[in-house]
Amino acid sequence: MPPAPPNVVLIVADDLGPGDLGVSGSPAVRTPHLDTLARQGRRFTAAYAAAATDTPSRAGLLTGRYGARLGLPHSLGRGADAGLGPGTVTIASALRDAGYATACVGQWRLGDRPQDHPLRHGFGRFHGTMYGTDVSPLPLVEGHEVVRDDFDVSGGIAHFTTKAREFVAERREQPFFLYLSYLDPHVPYRPDPAFAGRSAAGAYGDVVECLDHHVGALLRELDGHGLRGSTLVIFTSDNGPRYEGANQRRRGRKPEVYDGGVRVPFLVRGPGRVRPGADHEPMSLVDVPATLAALCSAPMRDLDGYDLSPRLAGHAAGRPPVYLFFGPHLNAARQGRWKLHVRFSTDRTAYMPQLFDVAADPGETCDVSSRHADVAERMRAGLEEFARTVEAS
């Protein structure tokens, strides 16, 4: 008999580097709770953001479709005439229809028009901010109401974790989906005073250590209610680091689509479905909805992502190319050991195309397209065809 559908806790950091966790080699930032989560579950070492910046990546994470396909290729701020819009199916709406209680706690970043609101997209509860820390003053919202005009982001991690724990405690008797979307460690790196000066990595490291501490508190909340055995926990980031943070010495930073800008941490712990260990094959945040839909019996259709549940169980499973967008442009693709770039930012003439063997050359330093012209042409043809389907939609 298959196991019952799990509760789901999806935790997303903002601009966290894949190398900022102890388990991934950070020498300066201590993350004992996330390291434990990684050891208890499965760590994907070749996880990619769904896009080079926050809004399209978060759109991909929640819908399973690339943000450029949804008309969301760029980061959204206050008053933008864009957003998820009516009729867009999210994993939250699919899980709600499957009987889950749903909550979005923290940053939304997917439009502030009435039709874009989290409560219009499958979430039964919203407590957070419509924007990120680049908007000031930053209003704090409960449901549709502004409850604080100028939210102090230094206390954001603790505040949102408290709200997340309250939701878990309240809904523990029924299946639930919690989307906990932190504002940190995005600039301006304002650590909670209790963590200021604690790390060896400056204010950025202080914020990451604070984040780790409060993720640990949420995990203890789950354990305290006896929910560890019935809850799937995912931890990731919307994209790679920008000004500070560890990109594991890979080339590029946000918003570039070289691996230093789009690699993200991706940890999964789950009841009877996740085999502890590491998975080194490429995956994308657009795979999350397809995976949750399969595990939670909550069907979704017409997705760009793929079901990772066999890989969570430790089974080898190939994946078609992971596509990497810069704004509306499909700039790169990763498949197996190969990474093809056809555009740098908006420029197709900057020594493109480039092909890298990222297994042998993780820094993407040496173009081998002339040596592997067949690989480059095959990947280029597939990329151009996929780009046409996105433009058509």
UniProtKB/TrEMBL annotation:
<feature type="domain" description="Sulfatase N-terminal">
    <location>
        <begin position="6"/>
        <end position="295"/>
    </location>
</feature>
<dbReference type="InterPro" id="IPR050738">
    <property type="entry name" value="Sulfatase"/>
</dbReference>
<dbReference type="GO" id="GO:0004065">
    <property type="term" value="F:arylsulfatase activity"/>
</dbReference>
<comment type="similarity">
    <text>Belongs to the sulfatase family.</text>
</comment>
<dbReference type="InterPro" id="IPR000917">
    <property type="entry name" value="Sulfatase_N"/>
</dbReference>
<dbReference type="InterPro" id="IPR017850">
    <property type="entry name" value="Alkaline_phosphatase_core_sf"/>
</dbReference>
<protein>
    <submittedName>
        <fullName>Sulfatase</fullName>
    </submittedName>
</protein>
<dbReference type="Pfam" id="PF00884">
    <property type="entry name" value="Sulfatase"/>
</dbReference>
